Amino acid sequence: MGVPKRKSSKQKIRQRRSANANLVVPNLSECPQCHEFIVPHTVCSVCGYYKNKEVLKIKA
């Protein structure tokens, strides 16, 4: 089994751990029908439109 030659510094350990913790805010675009913010390339959950076509019937 491999054994480290030297002690890993606190900085090196923290850099390695933080590399996977990149939190990214999703891009939001405006729905052309109801002007709500939605994730791109998805059906609007408020009005049910996608690419200016009604895909879902939303009960009011």
Concise overview:
With 60 residues, the protein is α+β, with helices and mostly antiparallel strands. Helix content is 15%, strand content 13%.
**Fraction in beta strands:** 5-15%
| CA radius of gyration | 23 Å
The helix/strand class is alpha+beta
Average pLDDT:
90
Into which percent range does the helicity of residues fall? 10-25%
Low-confidence stretches: none
Distance between the termini: 65 Å
- For the biggest β-sheet, the strand order reads 1-2
CA-based shape: rod-shaped
Note the total helix count.
1
Series of secondary-structure elements, N-terminal to C-terminal: HEEEE
Number of E-state strands: 4
The major sheet is characterized as:
2 strands, antiparallel
Please characterize this protein's 3D structure.
The strands form two sheets. This protein has a two-stranded antiparallel sheet with strand order 1-2. A two-stranded antiparallel ribbon has the order 3-4. The chain has one helix at 10-18; strands at 29-30, 37-38, 49-50, 53-54. 15% of the residues lie in helices and 13% in strands. With 60 residues, the chain is of the alpha+beta class. The chain is rod-shaped and about 65 Å long. The chain has a domain at 25-60. The mean pLDDT is 90.
